[in-house]
Specification:
The structure holds two protein chains of two kinds. Chain A is mainly α. Chain A has ten helices and no strands. Chain A folds into two domains: 40 residues; 200 residues, no CATH class. Chain B starts with a helix and ends with a helix. The chains are: A mainly alpha, B alpha+beta.
């Protein structure tokens, strides 16, 4: 009896400790979310003043927010998914919609930007760029916002347009693309304090780097799959022999 | 005791269920071997479909020739149907069998009588070795009288409206026209082609005769298209040459290649036609059996490519008039692996003159596919094998209303297929659509959908019918069913959505959108106007209030200042006093 009582006391004590820790953490989390949301709004200044905006985003500690970057990238992926599923009939690919795989779709939306940030950081450290990985990532994530906005505009528009007016639809889509990719390039130049020529060179190198990273990742994936497959096969063989 | 009873009861019930189930499943089995029926859905994926044809009869040599010896080999090379008679060309025994509607033998043409001038046969022909033995006598059979002649491995037959039988006597390098008793009325031989060369043998394989008795022939080894021969037996022209378009990469590469490299490259030569037929309006349908690698690449997998198309409909000047509105250009199956061995080998084509439907026969899969006039695939039947309703080497087919005859060279049979109720429903609906009976076609296609809900052509044609019905109405006019044109457009959108026809869907949507905009034009622009006016009014009111307030404040300030000055003045005065 005593032992169980002791145990139950311990458990409640642990729970109480946990609760107090959570209680202490919750307000902190709340203030963190509040400041992040506030700082995310800075992107609308960046949209119209990219040079000042990206410079301050990196250097002003009051405006810098990696969590904000993560949030904008997550929003980009979600909007991409919503757009894919909710376009009007004339502009959607019904076959692809039926074969939708949500995690894969989200990953493929986000992965290129993460790959860009990593590859760009790798090359910029060789080409004496000023930016840290977090800087490059944050700037890239903020630069995806034009694409997100244009994707959002496309959703209601696709329900009102006929296919002969489809050029309006594609026009808005391509504006978003050009605007977004241009800002990714500008943010990279500003973060690393590059000239335009050097920035262009780094961009080309970064794209090559992205391809190399993807290639190595696939290679490792298949190698691991082969090795694990080999051991699994040995296991099944042993089980088969033993059960014989 | 009780337990035993329940046990036996359970066993009895189980036995009953099994027996009943087996009876049910047995009755559910198809009655003939034309099973595994399928059709394509709107995405070009094959899905189960109702059976389109059942085997009515399979004719072997003993069914055709009653007293045939058991070792008689019968190789049906070509078929022709005209005015109640089915003509079968047997290339092994070199004879023509004529059957009536009950498949009873009416006549056998084995020996031709009449005057056929002798001809020195060319060695280049396929039947050259055999031809040489009899060459001097021009195919004269030994032992028979001087004006009796035998056919030699003939490959094509055509019968005109007046009953004249034209036979492509391939082994004897000539075309003979005769009547049903074998009496020769015309012989065409010794044709020389100006381009191909003098020593080229004239080996006709398939032929048609048009309304002015000009003969269109396909020849062995001639890849310049169809040969036109006048009714007098003179060479007129080649026409409908299959065009060859090398790929862009090859065309660029050829500019840089040396002559030695060019010699090693594949030469792009047009392919030969395999079969030919004519409809009653004079259009000539041709098929290509031997596709080259380039064509296979261009055609495999839901392709609407026209430059490699194995089926062509040639007008009088040789241009391809075939409409290809379907998921893929007419070539039998829509999807097949991009390998030469699996490529369709279209060996024959037959046209139904009344409706314009045509059937093509694919030797690779042993299937025959029916198309409507716009190039939509309607149904598929057949298969490979030696059981009833399947083929090993299907070689020719002929259409007669609801019946389709298919000749198989390796099974040595002729199979008679009869259209099922489903096929008749599709035909009736397709005919209603092509003749513009829109209201009727809606009902008929609905009937087709009740058989096969995957039949996307039904939705397509219903959408078209609704569009046409909508066009007949003006403004808010209603038709007999009390529907306005907008209702019809809405229905058309529904059907076009079902069959994934985006262009037509968009047209119907635009009509509806324009109407809605017109309807709510006043409301939309009125509300915009109200908003604009309201904004300015509000702004003015606010400014007015602001100014009023400012004025009041200024006034109050001035008053206060005055008061303060007065106070000060009084104070000063008081001080002085």
């Amino acid at each position: 009896m005593e032992k169980t009582a002791k145990k139950s006391i311990n458990l409640s004590k642990i729970l109480a400790d946990l609760w107090s820790a959570v209680k202490g953490f919750l307000p902190k989390l709340w203030t963190g979310i509040k400041t992040t949301v506030k700082r995310m709004g800075y992107v609308f200044y960046i949209l119209v003043h990219p040079f000042d905006g990206f410079y301050d985003l990196k250097n002003d500690p009051k405006r810098r927010s990696v969590a904000g970057g993560v949030a904008w990238l997550v929003i980009y992926a979600l909007v991409d998914l919503v757009r894919f599923q909710n376009l009007g009939y004339l502009f959607s690919d019904r076959g692809a919609q039926l074969a939708l795989n949500v995690p894969v779709r989200l990953m493929t939306a986000v992965l290129p930007f993460i790959l860009w940030a990593v590859a760009n950081w790798c090359f910029s450290s060789l080409m004496d760029g000023d930016g840290k990985l977090s800087d490059v990532f944050m700037a890239t994530a903020y630069a995806t916002v034009p694409i997100t906005i244009c994707n959002l505009i496309q959703i209601p528009l696709s329900h009102f347009l006929s296919s002969s007016e489809g050029s309006i639809f594609t026009f808005i889509g391509s504006i978003g693309m050009i605007w977004g990719y241009l800002y990714i390039f500008l943010s990279m130049i500003i973060v690393h304090q590059y000239s335009v020529g050097k920035g262009l060179g780094t961009a080309v190198l970064t794209i090559i780097g992205m391809a190399i990273i993807a290639f190595v990742a696939i290679l490792i994936f298949f190698l691991v799959q082969q090795v694990s497959g080999f051991f699994v096969e040995i296991g099944t063989e042993i089980i088969f022999r033993l059960s014989e | 005791m009780k337990q035993k009873f329940t046990k036996s009861l359970i066993v009895m019930v189980l036995a009953f269920v099994v027996a009943f189930g087996s009876v049910l499943s047995a009755s559910a089995l198809p009655i003939n071997n034309v099973n595994n029926a399928y059709f394509y859905n709107v995405d070009g994926i094959d899905a189960a479909a109702p059976i389109s044809f059942t085997v009515e009869k399979q004719l072997s040599v003993t069914d055709i020739v009653a007293k045939a010896a058991s070792n008689t080999v019968f190789v049906p090379e070509d078929l022709f149907y005209r005015n109640g008679y089915l003509y079968i060309l047997d290339s092994r025994s070199s004879a023509v069998y004529v059957l009536d509607e009950q498949y009873q033998l009416v006549s056998t043409i084995r020996l031709l009588t009449g005057d056929i001038p002798a001809l020195e046969l060319s060695d280049a022909s396929q039947g050259g070795a055999e031809g040489e033995e009899e060459g001097e006598e021009g195919g004269l059979l030994g032992g028979t009288s001087k004006n009796q002649y035998a056919l030699q491995s003939p490959q094509g037959i055509f019968v005109t409206e007046d009953g004249t039988i034209y036979i492509a006597d391939t082994g004897n390098q000539r075309i003979v026209a005769c009547d049903i008793n074998g009496k020769v009325s015309k012989v065409i031989q010794g044709i020389k082609f100006p381009i191909v060369g003098e020593d080229f043998a004239f080996c006709p394989t398939r032929l048609v005769v048009d309304s002015v008795n000009d003969i269109q022939v396909i020849c062995q080894g001639i890849n310049r298209g169809v040969i036109q021969i006048t009714s007098e037996g003179k060479f007129n022209a080649f026409f409908g040459t299959p065009n060859v378009i090398p790929s862009l990469g090859d065309r660029i590469w050829r500019n840089f290649a040396t002559e030695k490299q060019l010699a090693q490259m594949i030469t792009y030569t047009p392919t030969e036609y395999s079969s030919i037929t004519i409809d009653d309006r004079g259009f000539i349908y041709t098929t290509i059996a031997m596709l080259d690698e380039d064509s296979v690449k261009g055609l495999a997998g839901k392709s609407t490519a026209t430059n490699h198309a194995p089926v062509r409909k040639l007008s009088a000047d040789g241009t391809d008039m075939l409409r290809r509105n379907g998921l893929a250009s007419p070539m039998g199956d829509i999807v097949w692996p991009q390998i030469l061995d699996y490529a369709p080998k279209i060996v024959d084509i037959a046209v139904d003159n009344e409706s314009g439907r045509y059937v093509i026969l694919d030797q690779t899969t042993g299937r025959f596919s029916t198309y409507d006039t716009t190039g939509n695939l309607l149904y598929i039947c057949g298969g490979t094998g030696s059981s009833v309703g399947t083929f090993k080497r299907a070689n020719a087919l002929e259409i007669n209303g609801d019946l389709v005859y298919v000749a198989d060279k390796e099974n040595n049979t002729i199979t008679v297929f009869k259209a099922t109720a489903y096929t008749l429903a599709v035909n009736a609906a397709a005919e209603a659509t092509s003749s513009g009976h829109w209201n009727e076609s809606l009902k008929l296609w609905q009937n087709v959908l009740s058989y096969n809900s995957n039949m996307y052509i039904a939705n397509m044609c219903m959408g078209e019918a609704e569009m046409q019905l909508a066009l007949d109405l003006i403004g808010d006019q209603t038709d007999a069913d009390g529907l306005t044109s907008w209702d019809h457009y809405e229905r058309a959108m529904f059907y076009y959505n079902r069959c994934n026809e985006k262009e037509n869907y968009s047209t119907a949507y635009m009509a509806i959108r324009t109407h809605e905009l017109e309807k709510y034009f006043g409301l939309i622009f009125g509300s915009i106007g109200v908003l604009v006016v309201g904004y300015f009014v509000l702004k003015f009111v606010r400014n007015y209030k602001k100014r009023k307030k400012e004025k009041a404040e200024k006034l109050a300030a001035a008053l206060a200042r005055q008061e303060a000055a007065a106070k000060k003045y009084h104070q000063m005065k008081g001080d002085e006093e």
